[in-house]
Amino acid sequence: MSEVVTFCRSRNDGRRCTRPLGHAGLHRHRTIMWSDAGADPAHCSGSGEPGEPAAPLAGGFPDGRALCPVCLRFIELDADSRLLAHDTADETETDAEASRRRDWLNAHGW
What we know:
The chain is an alpha+beta fold. The chain has one helix and six strands, in the order ββββββα. A hairpin with a 2-residue loop joins β1 and β2. The longest helix is centred in the C-terminal third of the chain and has 14 residues, at 95-108. The two termini are 23 Å apart.
């Protein structure tokens, strides 16, 4: 059984910080480093884009939500089949949700 690793949610030019959540110091993705002042806004640029419900896993996950191609989160759709406004990360996301998303991506790709 594998554990879900929770990474820092900061992004810079679309690159996600690869340090653990709550780390001290600069954010890092490979050789690129940035401070909080240089981070991308939390609002995901995929908000409002067209989407369609993702294929469900056994058990129904992702429950009719669409995969955002920018932040790779499952997001509810509005009446016009567009992704609702959302941030690139969800501070309240549970380990179970992250694990189900990993299972979905392993089964369906992105």
